[in-house]
Amino acid sequence: MQELEIKLPDVGEGVTEAELVEWHVKPGDLVREDDILAAVMTDKATVEIPSLYDGKVTWVGGEIGDTVPVGTVLVKIATEADAVPDVGRAAEPVEEVVSAKAEAPKPAVKPTPSPAKPVPVRTVGAPRAEGARVLASPAVRKRARDAGIDLRQVPGRGPGGRVEHADLDAVFAAPRGAVSGAVRMRAQGMDEIKVVGLRRKIADRMALANERIPHITVVEEVDVTALEDLRATMNQGRNQKGAEKPKLTLLPFLTAMLTKALRDHPEMNAHFDDEAGVIHRHNAAHIGIATMTDGGLIVPVLRHAEALGLFETAGEITRLSQAARTGKATREELTGSTITITSLGPLGAIVTTPIINHPEVAIIGINKMAMRPHWDGSQFVPRKMMNISCSFDHRVIDGWDAAVFVQRLKTLLETPALIFVED
Amino acid sequence: MQQKTCKLLIIGAGPGGYVCGIRAGQLGIDTIVVESEKPGGTCLNVGCIPSKALIHAAEQFETVKHAAGENPLGISASDPVIDLGQTVDWKNGIVKRLTGGVAGLLKKSKVQVVEGTARILDGKTVLVERDGDPLRIRCDHLVLATGSAPVELPFLPFGETVISSTEALDLRAVPDRLAVVGAGYIGLEIGMAMAKLGSEVTLVEAADRILPQYDAQLTAPVAARLKALGIRCLLNAKAEGLTGAGDLSVETSGGSEDIAADRILVTVGRRPVLDGFGVEDLGLDRTGPFLRVDELCATSMREVYAIGDITGEPMLAHRAMAQGKLVAEHIAGLSVGWDKQAIPAVCFTDPEIVTVGQGPGEAPDAKLSLFPLQANGRALTLERADGFVRIVSDPDSERVLGIQAVGVGVSELAGEFALALEMAATLTDIADTIHAHPTLGETVQEVALMGLGQALHI
């Protein structure tokens, strides 16, 4: 009979002490080699301390909550007389386990061979350094490559640290997330994409607008239930009397609402020539419609929106966006807007901060419509709600004016009859 | 002018180009290979295969000569003679059969082979000059596989008596006196064969020993054999040019010497073929004289790939083949990348040399184990027990870092050596694999056992 000590091992790089968080044994318990004796916590992880010997626990050192330095005797175990103190192993770093209740001891803390059976091969754990040779057969390498696994990050348990099929199996079997960050292939290199053509133009115009114009963005919530009812009714009746009328989307209503509002707010339908220091207020409403094409953002222009009826507008917008997407829009159709509407439809988000189409002074951004509860004074009712996010050139539009304009838009949208009332 | 388009265009139908073509065809890629000569490249036409044919003929001849003299086997034979012209015809027959085979394989894979000289117009357009019928080919991916050519010395230009390996393998009579400039593997292979065929051979090497790219331990048995064959070795000697009488003028440490020779074989290396067909104008990045490629064999220009000798050392057919396969699979969208651990190299000198992986010089801290063929039964029955098998291993992990061998017939062990390295084998893996008795391969198992301190037969 002899008594052997188990000390707190080196539990990780730079760790000099650890907090005792759990005892798995008490004096008098019989333990086998690799049974968990205790758990300690460092600032990095919780680490389980396995027994190095078979035997009976005679003494435990420390209470839960104690902070003990590396090398402190934790447990004394009475063993058979022929047991040999495992000096080498006690000094070896212990593999980290994330949870104190790991289901099985990790293979890396499997028994080391007894001195009687020397095995010169020591398991070398992952990860290896960048550029280090990966030890694996071609079949294992191919399997890893096909699965997008970086073999340098996989612990090899074969001789000399060789990664075997079984090691890969372990990676595949591990719960997703537990290993993904560690073993997925690191992507290399980058693609170079020249910014040319339309993209170059968009980049230049955006930079110009953002550099020159101090934007103020006003966001307002709009109840569009009535507008949507009206739109549904008009769409239902559009093909009566044999007339082939285009389907009405929200956009024709928005342009009609906007032209109506612009009559009272000519300051919004303007170009600011900041180099000459002159504002040009336009009588005609040429409304830019921001349109996504394969090549990027294009803004075809709905000319003289103030002179178009609802269905005419709808037809014209369809034609213009078609022309823009197929690259058939003329120069005339792509220039000269006096104010712009930007809408991403169902992708419209809650709030956007639209960039003004220089040299215009205002842009109307349309956000996503959604059914939301609305307090009507006595109860919540479901209403179709939509936000509008409008940006203004703060050099020539004051916050007050911007707010008044947005309120006007809100009023018109919530009471669509007003759009069609001649005043 | 005729026009064609294809997905993959390969310039050169050597081992790299034709393998790339076959694999691409198998993967359903619309592929064209352009070749100005017969398919098979240097390897099949004027390299590996013809030289092995010549070496075999020389060995057979020497065996009969050996039998015609005093020999322990009790064989009697009378003075043999060789008609080298007939040997060359036989060799040409083999070459023809193999190049025809390559053409057939390409056809079977539905790869179009265009005969003519390619001229690169841009990274995606190639003009093929044919007799009065030029062809313009547009492609999505271009693979350069134009190989290498013998280096010519400015003071010894190739001509009637000064020849390269290409002409040496086509000689129809054994030259009475042959001078070989450059004692690398090509010069030694041909020089030793010619000596066995009866030529009086002189080797001229600028370095202080033969096969300077190999370590001295490995080349010692070859040096001993050179001596036995009566081949004169001038080391630290520099060829200077031809004298007025047509002799080879050599500057040695002991003064200058003129070597009378009927033929002067210049084997001072090979250079990549990267000039004269428009590749210069692409401005591709280089590493020395070679094209720089990444782990997908991609050059610095998008969708332009390079494989084989133009991508650098080692300039070996099997490396080019592996690269060709890789590029075809990459273009087909498969997930691949160059991750080879070892490229075996074989020197068909007498005795043969095989090297795989790191040698003692590259791994100074490694453990060396060496087993002599003297202790191998099979080697003794072949009457040739000079040479050894050597394993370089990591002392901590026992991992095999390199295997080298020198001996008659050891070239056939190259596969096992390469497999061991590619599989990341340890000494125990080899030692615990039963090797058939009685074979030369047993020495590989023995040397692994020796590395573990458990050698049985020594």
Topology summary:
The complex is a heterodimer of chains A (423) and B (458).
Chain A: E1 2-7, E2 17-23, E3 30-31, E4 36-41, E5 46-50, E6 55-60, E7 67-69, E8 73-79, H1 87-91, H2 138-146, H3 165-173, H4 180-183, H5 197-212, E9 215-223, H6 225-237, H7 250-264, E10 270-273, E11 278-281, E12 287-289, E13 291-293, E14 296-298, E15 301-302, H8 310-325, H9 331-334, E16 339-343, E17 362-375, E18 380-393, H10 399-414, H11 417-420
Helix pairs in contact in A: 7-8, 7-10
Chain B: E1 2-11, H1 15-26, E2 31-35, H2 41-46, H3 48-68, H4 84-108, E3 112-115, E4 117-122, E5 125-129, E6 135-144, E7 148-150, E8 162-163, H5 165-168, E9 177-181, H6 185-196, E10 200-204, H7 216-228, E11 232-234, E12 238-242, E13 248-252, E14 255-259, E15 263-266, E16 270-272, E17 286-287, E18 290-291, E19 304-306, H8 317-331, E20 345-347, E21 352-357, E22 367-372, H9 377-381, E23 388-393, E24 400-407, H10 414-422, H11 427-431, H12 442-451
Parallel strand pairs in B: 1-2, 1-6, 2-3, 6-19, 8-15, 9-10, 9-15, 10-11
Antiparallel strand pairs in B: 4-5, 5-6, 7-16, 12-13, 13-14, 17-18, 20-21, 21-24, 22-23, 23-24
Helix pairs in contact in B: 1-4, 1-8, 3-4, 3-6
